[in-house]
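Incident review: delayed structure delivery

Summary: a single-chain prediction request sat in the queue longer than the usual turnaround. Root cause was a stuck worker, restarted by the on-call engineer. No data loss occurred. The affected request and its eventual output are reproduced below so the record is complete for anyone auditing the incident later.

Affected input:
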Amino acid sequence: MSTPAPQPFDEHALRHALLGPAGRWTRLDVVEETGSTNADLMAEAVAGAPDGTVLVTEHQTRGRGRLDRTWEAPRGSGIAVSVLWRPEGIPAERLGWIPMLAGVALLDAVRAVAPGVVAGLKWPNDLLLGHDRRKGAGILAEMTPLSGGGPGVVLGMGVNVDAPAGTLPGTATSLAAEGAAVDRSELLVTLLRNLAERESAWRAAAGDADESGLRADYRAGCLSLGSEVRVELPGGAALVGMAEDVDPQGHLLVLEPDGHRRAIAAGDIVHLRPADRPDA
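Output delivered after worker restart:
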């Protein structure tokens, strides 16, 4: 039996669900294909795109991750979306919570539409699915240049929804591969509503992750905490220890065997892996 063709996103329905009185976003566009929604939205930000702009594509050919990693998913098999925020007045040291905020919003959305799938977060913001804890989504936040409509953050998210297991790398999975039949549009709407609510509460608290409740919810959903991890650093160095907690700045607190506790920033690492799974 052949696999049914994926249903394309209905731009009109998405706008009705998410813009104006029904939602907190200000502009939403769907494009058939692009290299990178983050790159496109970055250019729009420089040109003055407003706070709350959303860009969605059916097919992203050069998706971008941390450290210039790239990826491509089969057409219509997932969600590739970027949003633009201009969180004025938020202290710079609190902006690192934005991708972690997105991770919590995504985790909540997946749990809402696919309650039978085991899901959690790997610090700082990868979505892990299934009992084998394989990567089901990635998140990338980038600061915009100080031009156009002022400073801002472009946040990109790529979610594996319908991709069959055989089309994915060994360390990746999808909701379909984990046994969940999920409508992409339903997941996208749920995700963007969660994202808007989370960011609004965080912005109202001036980026304070404790006051907004973000830190507590993040800690509850982070599978890295309480486990032995291997933190791979630039230049080939690494440290192994217990991932104890996430501090108010979003740093991972790692307790080394000698009792020394280190605060690790997401931008300072190459990989975070389970200590007993060096290839995960």
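Verification: DSSP finds five helices and 14 strands in the chain.
Action items: add queue-age alerting; document worker restart procedure.
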